[in-house]
Amino acid sequence: MQRLVEGLRLGDRYVLQERIASGGMADVWRGLDDVLKRDVAVKIMRADPDNEEIFAERFRDEALHSAALLHSNITTVFDYGEDDHLTYLVMELVPGLPLSAIIREHGAMQPEAVRSILGQAALALGTAHEAGVVHRDVKPANILVREDGLVKLTDFGIARAIDSIGHTRVGEMLGTPNYISPEQAIGQQATGASDLYALGVVAHEMLTGKRPFDRGTPIATAMCHVNEPPPPLGDEVPEDLRDVVASLLEKDPADRPENALAVAVLLGVAPAELADLDVDLASGVPSGGYLVLPVTPLTPSTPLEAVTPADRAPADIPTMAAAPEELLD
Q1: Between the chain's N and C termini, which has fewer beta carbons within 10 Å?
Q2: Distance between CA atoms of 146 and 92, rounded to whole angstroms?
């Protein structure tokens, strides 16, 4: 097996330049596509002799699922390959930061920034769910924010096609405990509604700067999602935004919005062709008007606190190539 070092060439095409993220299942490197002469992100599966077969199957699934999802708010997959026992996935390199880094740096975010990020992530999930793919690990580390405010949902590493058998073993719980839905926590199958619950946890964290469910251990945290209500949001959060977050965090999947697109419309971030639709928050069914929010870039000197409804980009983000720093944690 080849050693992962700067300058290593994979598939006689992709030259590794520097490692930019690492997790339990894979490493992500900045690379150069020597054929098309462009920078890319190369995700390389980390060898695990005890679970190599099941991890490899999940990795191939990620390639297939992600390549089928073409949307401006989803990272684009360019290629998949195997080279001397190394399995790798080639993706677009996103210039920006993971949302986890933004929250860690800035703490609680302004409501309008939250609307923009949350709405764009909902649009991405809507595309995935319509294609029959449940993400199953929605969390800040898997939401990349470009410096111009565009959001990219990434890392479908434990995604599963809704109609497929999948590779989950009986009784196995996949996902991150801080963002796992109540139904996943008790071993039930994840659905699109489970992704919406995780998105609600992310929204709550953006608005407060703190994870709403965190009890120190994975099991205690997971069961907290099942048994405890989220901490209340303050009056500084607009009532309509509080209502959206509350609907996403309903314990019963049937009580959450009907689909991700309904959430995007509620937040005012939706495709123009939906201009004649409304959404009734109680049912999640389209039923009223909405405002399409533009995503405009901020200057490097614009602080996060200064974001207003006229400046919808979510943060003052330095120009850098980034990938989730908590990949599949």
Answers
A1: N
A2: 12
